[in-house]
Amino acid sequence: MTLNLKTSSVETREQRLGTIIGWDGTATQLADESAFSRGDCGGCGGKARRICELEGPFTQGSVCSEQMVECQAGNIRDAVLIQHSPIGCGAGQVIYNSIYRNGLAMRGLPVQNIRFISTNLRERDMVYGGADKLAFAIKAAVERHAPKAVFIATSCASGIIGDDVESVARAAEAEFGIPIIPLHCEGFKSKHWSTGFDATQHGILRQIVRKNPEKRQDDLINVINLWGTDVFTPMLGELGLRVNYVVDMATVEQLAQMSEARATVSFCYTLGTYLATALEQEFGVQQIKAPQPYAFAGTDAWLRELARVTGREQQAEDYIAREHARVKPLIAELRPKLKGLKGYVATGSAYSHGLIGVLREIGVEVDGSLVFHHDPVYDSEDPRQDSLGHLVETYGDVKHFTVGNRQQYQFYNLLQRVKPDFIIIRHNGLAPLAARLGIPAIPLGDEHHALGYQGMVNLGESILAALQHRKFHQDIAKRVSLPYKQSWLAEPDPFALSRGATA
């Protein structure tokens, strides 16, 4: 698949990959239908893989692409994000500021607030246009913050009125002499928010990454991540490698030097597929094509491929042997304590695949998972990156494997048919519903918590800690009711409305 960086707007995941947000079956069935590494795609046609999708008649709420731009471009330390939108689109910045500050503290970086400006589009602007407001906001951003770059996030409102954001950005760039980068991320543009990751990365690749790097830093590895603790520096340090964390909490210079790195890795292919593939395509920065670094099988394969690419095979084998010797006794102690427990994973897709592998490695039963979308294939199209295929081949099938974009009414039925002892969740909006059913939730605010060899121990200990509060959640369940009709509470099919709407 060739990525097109000549246009200012990124192709949506539906266009490139065939992304879906509604499906229900087994993990093996979904892997087979995706035909990523498990068979011939046959008559798929076009660029995207096509999977039959369940489409619901309504949505209770979700997240949009613009919010992902907020938490990516808005978290670059010496840049400013302008949201060309009504003020309400910036409401998510309240929580993102807290996450950003916590992330900086966890990394030992100077703690600061995010720097963003809203153009505050109003009714008059929807009639007469908001280009003048945008030009004023760029000028204000430069004067207030002296940034190294300014990002502009479009919105549903700016897309509807058709503001010429490109022309305003070009004029400002000529005036102020810094990159002014439009990120086309209108909420209605894509049905899943992950396209917002790609929009940010597309703009960075076009206007910040150094086009003609003078040198290759052979020990530098780009690590595409969010705000997690720094687990990659000590891990890659065992191989004599340095880490360049991007995109969140990076500086503009760290983003620029991505083209000089030896290779690119990520904790999650959902987040990193676009940027890593484009860096390889445009600059020859090799993307590590291996299972994600979770549990023994994934981490071993990931380290060995990274070592092969960087010429550090012996260091990797020594490190793998030491970590196996250290961690296996710890997991042997955890397994009897976790025996008989049933877990449920509700996170982003590739991340969920990795977490299920960890749970099964430490002896936890997993009968079900909710992933918030599904990419049938990743941008590299390399079967070694088929995280779902790796899961079912290495750790077996998942009986109830569901794709859905965080619908509360469906989550009740999903949990009822599995009846887990706990859930692991990344986006916490669904966690209160689990609590009302008496199920403790483990919110993974630190996305690196379960990564690598130590991650298996971390997750096992977190499960045991969460189960200490099981009685509290059971007490909640006895005293609350759910806002659904009895007919829906008795419905065994979470997609009954979708099937009825399409019948």
UniProtKB/TrEMBL annotation:
Pfam families: Oxidored_nitro. Residues 73-467 form the Nitrogenase/oxidoreductase component domain. Keywords: Oxidoreductase. GO terms for molecular function: nitrogenase activity. Its EC number is 1.18.6.1. It is an enzyme of class 1 (oxidoreductase). PANTHER family: NITROGENASE IRON-MOLYBDENUM COFACTOR BIOSYNTHESIS PROTEIN NIFE. This is Nitrogenase molybdenum-iron protein alpha chain. It comes from Rhodopseudomonas rhenobacensis.
